[in-house]
Amino acid sequence: MSQPIISVKNISKKYNITHQRGGYIAMRDVMANIAKKPFSFLKRKVSKITGRITKEEFWALKDIDFDVFKGEAVGIIGANGAGKSTLLKILTGITPPTTGEIKMHGKVASLLEVGTGFHQELTGRENIFLNGAILGMTKEEITEKFDAIVEFSGVKKFIDTPVKRYSSGMLVRLGFSVAAHMEPDILLVDEVLAVGDADFQKKCLGKMDEVTGKGGRTILFVSHNLDAIEKLCKRCILLKNGKIEMVGKTKDVIDEYSNVKSNLVNIPLEKRTDRKGSGKVIFTNCEILSSDPKKIKLKIDYLNKTNEIYKNIKISTAIYSINNLHICNLTNNTIDKTISLNKKTGEIILEIYNINLINGKYNLTLFMATDHLNSEILDWITSAITIRIDNNFFYHSKKLPPENGLILLNFNYENTN
């Protein structure tokens, strides 16, 4: 067998997690907190020095080992947080691995984030030359391919406009066009193509198929769009919790991934073992109470395993398509109310308003965390409940259709205990 063009041996990546409430904290806020509660500040410092507070280690990747050969298009799939994007960032040299070795042979181009390598104040024309140079193309090569790059991107009308005025879709089209026309030996593509419209995604898949088929080049393609993965890639890698769960023919890997996701929804929340968080408080059940033209109610039961009454709790839910494409996040942080959890058991009623969903199945993720300076994740379950939209009507996977259609707008809640 020929020598692999990409060889990944025992790659692992470790991060140290600090628990701090989201958002930027200004120095004035830190100083104000010290002035208000100096003894609390000193207590935290002493705890860190004496080792009572330790850093939490998180392994985003663990013992990743695979080879990719010239001309292959290999898909990488997995749930959010599985380590897909981290792996591509290591392969591109953006971040180094904690352990392991990577060998890559040939010129590498990557498209990992919208607008990567673009200067917001420069025009599209100027950014083509800048981005091309960053990717290793000479000025002569860029000039020769300039018209083809612009034509493929579809932004000819705005080519002399600063890219800060471009939409995210326009940035993706231009960035992909530059990367694809530099004719790299290895092309690394993350989920950014999801930003583009359907026609452009089809165009990109055709270009990548051409690159591997006729050009003999290699592609690593990370995506939640399983249909796109199946059309482009003959081989696929399934990541789970930072480890390789399966490598094989794309259809077999996708079937395994889909079966795992479907089976999870059928397991009672209280018995789910794939959850994240401290486990001090856990979700035990989630069901739909009722639906009307303006809102739908979810009842979420919880179990508090401690003797503590938790105040100012952050509750979030995220909606994903059945192929794990992220639709939206909804959280009580956006409204001026707080949630408190009782001792032992209790329930929370969530009301969701006004999100226009097309027909199809969707998974809801549930998230719960404390809302203080050193925020702690209590429970986090992906695919906690499955819903189905059919002709503007809302269905739960195990319930009868409601009388009214679903028109979705805000996120509200009430603690019933």
Give the arrangement of secondary structure elements:
Elements: E1 6-17, H1 27-36, H2 38-50, E2 56-68, E3 73-77, H3 84-91, E4 99-104, E5 108-111, H4 124-134, H5 139-153, H6 168-181, E6 186-189, H7 198-213, E7 218-222, H8 226-232, E8 235-240, E9 243-249, H9 250-265, E10 281-291, E11 296-304, E12 310-321, E13 326-331, E14 339-341, E15 344-352, E16 360-370, E17 377-390, E18 393-396, E19 411-415
Parallel strand pairs: 3-7, 3-8, 5-6, 6-7
Antiparallel strand pairs: 1-2, 1-4, 8-9, 10-11, 11-15, 12-13, 12-14, 12-16, 15-19, 16-17, 17-18
What are the main properties of this structure?
disordered C terminus, 417 residues, six-stranded mixed beta sheet, 26% helix, globular
3D architecture notes:
The protein has helices at 27-36, 38-50, 84-91, 124-134, 139-153, 168-181, 198-213, 226-232, 250-265, and strands spanning 6-17, 56-68, 73-77, 99-104, 108-111, 186-189, 218-222, 235-240, 243-249, 281-291, 296-304, 310-321, 326-331, 339-341, 344-352, 360-370, 377-390, 393-396, 411-415. It has 417 residues and is of the alpha+beta class. The protein has two domains: 59-262, P-loop containing nucleotide triphosphate hydrolases (Rossmann fold), CATH 3.40.50; 269-415, Coagulation Factor XIII, Chain A, domain 1, CATH 2.70.50.60. A six-stranded mixed beta sheet has the order 5-6-7-3-8-9, with helices on both faces. Strands 12, 13, 14, 16, 17 and 18 form a six-stranded antiparallel beta sheet that branches. A four-stranded antiparallel beta sheet has the order 10-11-15-19, with no helix packed on it. Helix 4 (124-134) packs across helix 5 (139-153), helix 4 (124-134) packs across helix 6 and helix 5 (139-153) packs across helix 6 (168-181). It is globular, with a radius of gyration of 24 Å.
